Amino acid sequence: MNREITEHVLRRRPSLSSWAQFTLRMFVLFALLLFIVGFHWFEREGLKDNYDGVVSFVDVLYFTMISATTTGYGDIVPVTEKTRLFDALVVTPIRILFLLVFIGSAYLFVARRTWEKYIMRRIQRTLRDHIVVVGYGTKNSRAVQEMIDLGAEPDSIVVIDNNEDRLQVAKAVGCTVLKADATRDATLRAVHVDRAKLVIISAGRDDTSILICLTTRHLAPNVHISLAVNQQDNEIPARRAGADVVVNPLDFAGLLLATTHAGHHIADYLADLATKGGRVQLVERDVSPEEIGTPLKDITDGLGLRIIRDGTPYGFWRPQVQKLEAGDIIMAIVPTV
What pLDDT digit, counting tens, does each position of 45-69 carry? Predict the structure, then answer.
C-alpha cells in the first residue's frame, strides 16, 4: 500500500479554544458595526429617510444593521455620492464577511459537531471484535501495517492518539481514529474496548502504557492486551497490570544483534519469520479436527515447533506433542512463497 506523503504542512495546536475564536469573531464584527454606525452618523446628511425625512441616531443604527446584513428595504437610502461609495466599497464587502462568519460559526458550533456525533455513533454501533491501538508511534504504526498485510481490515483497527499528525497518517492507511487521552475511562468506553478482541498499547512512556493497561483491564476483563515497554524493569509491572503479552523492542533488538555472534544468517531468518513479507512465517492456530490424535510432526501446512495445551507450551521434542488433543494451539513455521 502506497503511503507516500507528497505535501508537508507545518501545523501547531491553535492557541485559542473554539469558544475563544467565536468570541473573537463576534468582537471583530461588533467593531466593524461600530465603524459603520460612526461613519453613517457623521455623514447622516448623505442619507434620506423616506418615512419622516429626519435621520436620527436610531435611524442610523437601523440603516447600518439592515444594510450590513441585507440589501436594505428602501425606507432609508444613501443619496450623496460619498455615502453611496462608502456603502458600495465598504459596507458591501463587510456584508459578505458577515455572511461568511455567520455561516462558518454555524458550521463550527452546530453542523460540524452534530455531524461528527452522528458519524461517531454510527461507527460505535459497528465496533465489535475490532483492534484498538493506543499510540501511533514507530512501533505501533509498523504493527498496524503488518496486521493489514496479514489480512486485517483497516477500518477494524481503531487508533487512539493525541497527536493530530499521527492520526492523519493512520487515517490515510484506512484506520478509524480518535484524538483523545487513552488513560481516561471515557475514551476507552467510546471505542467499546469491552467488545474488542485485541488492544495494543505503546504510549511512549512505560508508566503511561501501564496505566492505560490497568484501565483497559478494568473495563474489559477478557480482552487480550499486548503492551510494549522500553525498560526491562517494567515488564513485571506490565504483566501485573493485566498485559497478556509484554514486548521489549530494545531487548529484542539486542537479542537479534547477539545472534550475529553465532552466525551471520540467524538474525535475517528471525526477521524473515516476524514479517508477512518474508519467505517463511511463524503462525499460531488452533488444532483442526483432522489432526486430533496425530503427532505434531505430521501437520501438512508447515513445520510444527510447539503446542500450547492448557496454557503450557510443549516443544517438538516433548512427548506431549506425539498426540494432538482438542483445544491445542499449534505454533508452526509455514512458507509464504
Answer: 777 777 677 777 887 777 777 777 6
